[in-house]
Amino acid sequence: PDHITIKFNPKSIPPKTVGQVEVTYDPRGLKTLGYKIDNIELKTDEWFNSVKKFRVIVSLQEYFPPMTPEQIAQAPKLKIENPVHDFGIIKQGESVSTDFVITNIGKETLNIRQTMATCGCTASKPEKSDLKSGESSIIRVTFNSTGRSGDQSKVVMVFSNDPSNPTQKIEIKATISVYE
Prior knowledge:
The chain is mainly beta. The chain has one helix spanning 69-74, and strands at residues 4-9, 20-25, 34-43, 51-60, 78-80, 84-91, 95-104, 110-117, 122-126, 130-131, 136-144, 150-160, 167-177. The radius of gyration is 22 Å and the shape is flat.
């Protein structure tokens, strides 16, 4: 991908010697936060096993420059009320939803940059992405239990412009029953 640069030192490796692969990751053009996995293939001139595969795994976080205590006191601040919800026992194949209340307890406007679930079985959607000081909203989280059984625990990461705690998590739990 364009955001990854690879350099070899040396480009040609004599027998029984070692080389280095330098990987540079530049996320500035990406429009996502959180975990990202890129699969890389290196092709060599070896006659056997000439394709080498590896992954580049990153956790992208927003950078906040150092702030004075006064700036921190004026900054937005995300509060998630009751960040864990247990659906209890649900039937396999059932979809269930819950709302998490979020509040900006800071002084400047809070921006929910992104929400990201840890699996495809969970979806999240903030009702609003910008909250003024003192304003509350919800993030609706939906869990689809199709193909799952037993105890489940899923996390949704919430990325915001809260410089003190820019990445927070909400969690849902359920026990999936396969019996009618």
